[in-house]
Amino acid sequence: MKLIVIQFFIISLLFTSSFFALSSADSSCGEKCNVRCSKNDRKHEECIKDCNICCGKCNCVPSGTYGNKDECPCYRDIKNSKGGPKCP
């Protein structure tokens, strides 16, 4: 019985820590994507959507409003369905 309780406790801790890591990543993506898309020529909503998708996959957003994609190679290398860059 003790073993089951200990296993449940460990699983609960792992789940809780994963949840907090995901939620903090989402909030940092939103802030970084707002900055990234603040001067974008594309539709702002489209830019934010694409940026959040890329940030969610890569856990990073390049600094500034344009360029600097070498700071985050994963973000830089994601392509759209036509083979062009997906991430703003």
Automatic annotation (TrEMBL):
InterPro entries: GASA. It comes from the Eukaryota. Keywords: Gibberellin signaling pathway, Signal. Residues 1-25 form the signal peptide. Belongs to the GASA family. This is Gibberellin-regulated protein 8-like. It comes from Camelina sativa.
